Amino acid sequence: MDKLCVGVGAGSRVAAADIVAAALAVCGGAPVGVLATLDRKVSEPAFVDAAEALGAVLVGYPADRLAAVTVPNPDDGVATAVGTHSVAEAAAMLAANDGQLVVTKRVTNGVTTAVCIGGTAAVARSVSESVE
User: Is 94 within a domain?
Assistant: First the structure.
């Protein structure tokens, strides 16, 4: 089974446990291969700890790259706050190499998640992209 790429958007006050709970809620027990988000979030302890707890690779994308992705649920409020109309959906799609969005954005306790299907190739590519 392919591992899932979970896109996550959240404010700075979110806890790792909230991110983990939100990711598990949308994945239905399937393994998470990649936790993807806005690039400036990848050094925040909540995101680092959540990725570790999920056994996932944590990757971040700059706002301009996220903004270039066409998503089903763009949000003007998110665009005003971080410079892109989508974090969760766009990050999941990028992490999965523009893979199939199987769960559109969902908000759970202040954490927005979206899920794409992506295999090992998507995980490897995302890791290499996050260090460029």
Answer: yes
Radius of gyration of the chain (CA): 13
- The model's pLDDT over 27-43, given as tens digits with 9 standing for 90+, comes to 988 999 999 999 999 99
> Do 86 and 74 form a contact (C-beta atoms < 8 A)?
yes
Rounded-to-integer distance, Cα 7 and Cα 91, Å: 5
Q: Is residue 59 a part of any domain in this protein? A: yes
- Which pLDDT tens digit goes with each residue over 71-126? 999 999 999 999 999 999 999 999 998 788 999 999 999 999 999 996 444 444 44
Buried b (16+ CB within 10 A) or exposed e, 56-74: bbbbbbebebbbebebeeb
Dist CA 105 CA 7 (whole Å): 9
Q: Is residue 124 part of a domain?
A: no
**CATH code for position 37:** 3.30.420.180
